[in-house]
Amino acid sequence: MDADIVCVGFGPATAGFLSTLSKQLVNADGTPAMESAVSPGLSPQVLCYERADDIGFGVSGVVTTARALRASIPDIEKAGIPMAAPVGEEKVLYLLDPIGASRRSALLRLADKTIRAFQWALPFERDALNLPWTPGFLHKRGGMVLSMGQFMQWIGAQVQGTGAVQIWPGTPVSQALIENGKVAGVRLLDQGVTKQGAPADGFTPGMDIHAALTVVGDGPVGAIGRQLDDLFGLPENHHTRDWAVGMKFVVDLPEDTPLQPGTVLHTFGYPEPEIFGFFYTHPGRVASLGIFVPSWFDSPVRTAYRYLQHWMTHPYLWHFLKGAKLRSWGARTLGESGRRGEPHLAGDGYARIGEGSGSTNVLTGSGVDEAWATGAQLAEAVLELLRAKRPFTKENLEATYVQRRRASWLDQESRAAEKSRDGFQLGVLPGLIGMALAGLSGGRLVLPGQPLRPWERIPSLEDYFRGRIPPAEARKIRDDCYARGVSAHAALMERAGWPAIACDGQLLVSHQDALLLGGKVQAPPGYADHVAFIFPNECRRCGTKLCIEACSGQAITPGENGVPNFDREKCIHCGACLWNCATASPENPESRQVGTAFRAAPGGLHSAEN
Ligand SMILES: Cc1cc2nc3c(=O)[nH]c(=O)nc-3n(C[C@H](O)[C@H](O)[C@H](O)COP(=O)(O)OP(=O)(O)OC[C@H]3O[C@@H](n4cnc5c(N)ncnc54)[C@H](O)[C@@H]3O)c2cc1C
Ligand code: SF4
Ligand code: SF4
């Protein structure tokens, strides 16, 4: 099939692209404002393929300054987007450890003791210090609290309503078509295959869609972005070593909640000092809340789900959450390398937008507005080229799209943010100091630190728990769990002092119940497994098995002969297994695809509330 423009993924970046583009392709009377090269007499044919089962079935916050969103949708506040609220009260809280299980440095313990000793003179309540002052770059004053799922459904309807664009959910793109070193379109995923990918009953090979321009907005773990990274390489000194697993709950708050819509709480310090938390309140007593587990948290048992439960039960947060009910749950990884993870933004026949193009600002923790801005900038560039009837070559896209991006606030702010988190490589306190320095100096002052890959930094189980669990016992606990086919983090954490979670069946639920109640995970048949262990020998030798412990859906479990099992019925497509491998890829140590292949596939979370 032939199209003029084909887009991969419908996240905020592609929404910004299609929203800006679609308004200009057709005149008010419905006649084409410019002509398609493949369907003469019609407006340019624009197709967008999204792998998730419906529009907005991803997962993300979100609180945003909405600068770029407002530039495109000036009346966004009045648009009636469900779950949206203007940002109200904002707090940044340092959570102290109420149970003594958290791994804190001597310096942090001293700080905690000092805070407790002077709590009578400080804004301190329920084991939390409300920071009396926070730098402006952390504020979202004047911004909005949104549900990204609801916003995407709303904008998807607006874009399709123009009649100029088609969006196809449940349709994963398996690869970019490469012809003579240029991107010539995309190939959709084969259907009617076995789990191993062999043709079976009803085999339908993935259709090829040829297009003059392929817009790659498939996020930080997208298969097409990674294919292009592998093919064209990254610019010198760029890498994608920093990331975080973001896991969240959407909950109904108790009827007597004191929290007003628009309330924004950010936390750090607990359950482990490295873990950041967020709590955003929507209208109608609904809240989105969760944690980020960053790549520089050097734990071989860095489970997001268990830590999320300990975070929710911190006395400060439990005060608001006691009696709350789970509505929806999910997780997704974020690319946190920012500008340093920027790939080649354009090439012959393609352009990269959104988080996969390094747009997320790691200083302000803002990704949606930046992703949208890159899409809108590309749309303006594409319209300029279409009007001038100039082809989508690397040179033309550089002179229009990349130049617009470089000249914008987005690029300026991403430069200031580029090294702002390097201090975290040295520890949490240096990390926070480094962020403050970078934020207050516009990126001129930073603390140095070299981001490492997981296999360079993750200690063995025995080393991580040394002083808390004797090495032989840690090994035995893990071996016993693996013999039962389950991950070991819960047993190890409990042995190291973390209390068992007292499940209440409505908010504190087992991981499996979260999959069923909150994630409603779907795994359509007839597709190949999208997670596979591509270096089984490395897995057999691997003592850390980070992929099992970090899996957000308990979809990766201990397998026979040391090679993990994968159960796609539980996979929420978060992409954590792509980054969380404790062993270097024997083929390319810099590759994001280490022990596990993470391919395009349909299914995953089934909720548009996240
Ligand atoms: C828990 C969490 C909380 C967050 N909170 C905030 C916040 O408060 N504020 C903020 O600004 N940002 C926040 N972010 C970050 C924000 O969500 C991202 O920066 C933003 O969504 C990036 O947009 P994108 O369009 O580039 O990519 P994505 O949102 O990742 O969208 C990419 C889309 O492409 C699809 N796709 C991928 N591969 C394929 C394929 N092969 N074929 C077809 N489709 C494909 C995916 O399904 C997805 O829908 C948060 C993220 C998480 C995970
Ligand atoms: S995928 Fe990586 S972390 Fe998982 S078992 Fe294999 S080598 Fe170990
Ligand atoms: S197997 Fe699925 S749920 Fe588990 S880490 Fe990988 S993508 Fe996430």
Blueprint of the fold:
Blueprint: E1 2-8, H1 12-25, E2 46-49, E3 63-64, H2 67-72, E4 85-86, E5 90-95, H3 106-117, E6 124-125, E7 128-130, E8 144-145, H4 148-161, E9 165-168, E10 173-179, E11 182-188, E12 191-193, E13 199-204, E14 208-216, H5 223-232, E15 243-252, E16 264-268, E17 276-282, E18 286-294, H6 304-312, H7 315-321, E19 325-335, E20 346-347, E21 350-352, H8 368-387, H9 394-406, H10 409-417, H11 428-440, H12 454-457, H13 461-464, H14 471-483, H15 489-495, H16 511-519, E22 531-533, H17 536-541, H18 546-550, E23 556-557, E24 565-566, H19 576-579, E25 596-598
Parallel strand pairs: 1-2, 1-14, 2-9, 5-16, 14-21
Antiparallel strand pairs: 3-8, 4-8, 5-7, 6-7, 10-11, 11-14, 12-13, 15-18, 15-19, 16-17, 17-18, 20-21, 22-25, 23-24
Helix pairs in contact: 1-4, 1-8, 8-9
Bound molecules: flavin-adenine dinucleotide and iron/sulfur cluster (2 copies).
Mind explaining what this structure looks like?
The relative contact order is 0.15. The radius of gyration is 24 Å and the shape is globular. Strand 17 (276-282) and strand 18 form a beta hairpin. The protein is 29% helix and 20% strand. The chain is of the alpha+beta class and 610 residues long. Helix 1 (12-25) runs parallel beside helix 4 (148-161). It contains 19 helices and 25 strands. Strands 1, 2, 9, 10, 11, 14, 20 and 21 form an eight-stranded mixed sheet that branches. An eight-stranded mixed sheet has the order 6-7-5-16-17-18-15-19. Residues 531, 551-553, 555-556, 571-577 line the site of one iron/sulfur cluster (SF4).
